[in-house]
Amino acid sequence: MDPLQLLSFGDAGWGDELVVGTLMTLALAAPSFLVGCALGTLAATVRERGHRVGSALVSAYTTFVRGIPELLVVYLIFFGGGQLTRWVAGLFGVGGEFDPNAFLAGLISLGIISGAYATEIMRGAFKAIDRRQVEAAHAFGWSPGGIFCRVVFPQLLRIALPGLGNVWLLTLKDTALISITGLVELMRAAGVATGSTRMPLYFYGAALLLYLLLSSGSNSLFTLLERHTRRGMRGLAAP
Amino acid sequence: VNLQTVFQHFLTLLAGVPLTLQLVLLALAFGFALGCVTAFLRMGRVPVLSQLAGFYVYVIRGTPLLVQIFLIYFGLGPTPARRSAAPCNRSSTARSRPPWPTA
Question: Which of B59, B82, B88 sits opposite A212 (nearest CB)?
Answer without folding.
Answer: B59
